[in-house]
């Protein structure tokens, strides 16, 4: 009896050891719950065709919970092998804590331009810890049916933008601009950092802020506040209690002419727009003939957990993420997320293609505060959400907004003092 | 005579003691411990003494937000005290009067929201109050009050009150049930004797019933206090962790969440979060201590 038990446990132990040695299982941590089906049905099978025998599990957590639950799992040693990386400091923090592997010289990385890798490098640019996957582009979507009915054209300058909205308002049938301030992030991420880029000349202004050569109180950073302060009368009634879901419903149901959006919205509106075609235009420029700039934000990367038991396969996966095949699949299947690799990709969705074509005619930049400026207290990202919502709500003047941002930055950031 | 150690007592106490120690006492003590440490960039924790408290209360970047959250939390609590509990008392009194038809049905209906998830409550009320497709404006129109309609959840001046009232709506069933149970436990003879003496129903309520249920009223007060200062979920589900507009709905729970877990690009700090959690604990401990020292003791003496 006794010896039988020992034998049985020995067999079990041997089986377990064999299972571990066989390895070949990868788990991906991600916040893209929306893409779960796509990963499971398209991307992972495509990877497995190339690398048979590797089992990949896509295990996403809701976006708002992702950072906190990922931190807990990493600390507890139960996180997956591959970690989807937020851009800049969130991931840099993980790397500094020794939770992400250094990817220097790993295969696949050579397929990305330096501008794409910036979001996942140490400040001195020496170490890379995540492989870039995709970016999102901010812009305005509009209802082609309403534009046709009212005889409107895509606005190029800020003045034209307001003229178009005036005409929509005068018709009395539609809300000119779908935008709410209840959730706050839209006011910062898809309004200020998007419409502001042409005013502060994209990268030029962003880098000047980091070097301390420019201030938020300069005209280039204050004027966008002045523009958004004029939005109020063109928004839906009670916009201060309008959530992002409300905004999406309002525009999809054909009751609003324009929506301040990002490329990630294209997929949603393609499915939900009721009886109208989508059009898109980039953030309007201050004066006719000015150069246009777009917020082409590096949003997603992929890193390897230092505690992964299967790093060999994880690196294979990372290598595959840099392939033409992945870039093509990702860009075309996840509409509105654009591969950051240097491969040329044919985009099939017409609206997504339009967004991507802006890269040719406009200069790209990333969200103005994303690099370095978010590190102190008060946190710049939270400040931007709060301040921009207040400016659009008409509760804070553009001047005060700029002054508060600058003084908040100067509190901890030496170059800004 | 040698007495053996009463093992059976230890055995019977063990499950409750172990569960309490592992899931309640240990995390609490560890939180207190953690609040005296600081986290470096590499994630290593080192002893820092009272540094976190000094930052929390002395650095305007932290203290302004903290006191704002504290003020909002006090308002949140006062609204519950002034509306939820009197309303609970009123409802309980009405239900316990003899001859009320459908009393059980009302009880169930009023208690039902308490059982629903806060996320659902938040979502339903957000829809009802929505300026775009909510029904509230139309319903106000029926009584010609549509001009009073405003995006209550979106205005700095009204958002906190609106959220408090949503919470009152959800939880009014709890004081109602507790008080109702106390009211029907009062022996009928006392009421009948008072009735025979010629006391009016009003007088009976204020001079006989209310004094007899004072301990229960005290209990609901303390439950409301503890619940409100630990509140988080309703604000988080309706306004997000940034508790807008302009932090007007930020309470200690949401403030703690941002400090501990971080939010968006704000990186969370377990040690700073522990300091905030300890402050919340101290506030609640203080409130409960004051209550037990000055009120509950008197009430006990009163009722026996």
Automatic annotation (TrEMBL), chain A:
This protein's source sits in the domain of life called: Bacteria
Q: Keywords on this record? A: Signal, Transport
Q: Where in the cell is it found?
A: Periplasm
Endpoints of the signal sequence: 1-23
Principal subcellular localisation of the protein = periplasm
Instruction: Write down the Gene3D superfamilies for this protein, in alphabetical order.
Output: Periplasmic binding protein-like II
* Pfam families in the cross-refs: SBP_bac_1
Give the record's GO CC terms: periplasmic space
Protein's GO biological process: transmembrane transport
* Family named by the database record: Belongs to the bacterial solute-binding protein 1 family.
Protein's job: Part of a binding-protein-dependent transport system for a sugar.
Q: What is this protein called?
A: Probable sugar-binding periplasmic protein
- UniProt lineage: Bacteria, Pseudomonadati, Pseudomonadota, Betaproteobacteria, Neisseriales
TrEMBL record, chain B:
What CDD domains does the record tag this protein with? TM_PBP2
Q: What is this protein called?
A: Lactose transport system permease protein LacF
Write down the Pfam families for this protein, in alphabetical order. BPD_transp_1
Q: Which organism is it from?
A: Amantichitinum ursilacus
List all membrane-crossing ranges: 7-29, 76-97, 109-129, 159-183, 204-226, 272-294
Question: What is the first-listed, main subcellular location in coarse terms?
Answer: membrane
Where is it located?
A: Cell membrane
Q: Kindly state a single biological-process term from the GO annotations of this entry.
A: transmembrane transport
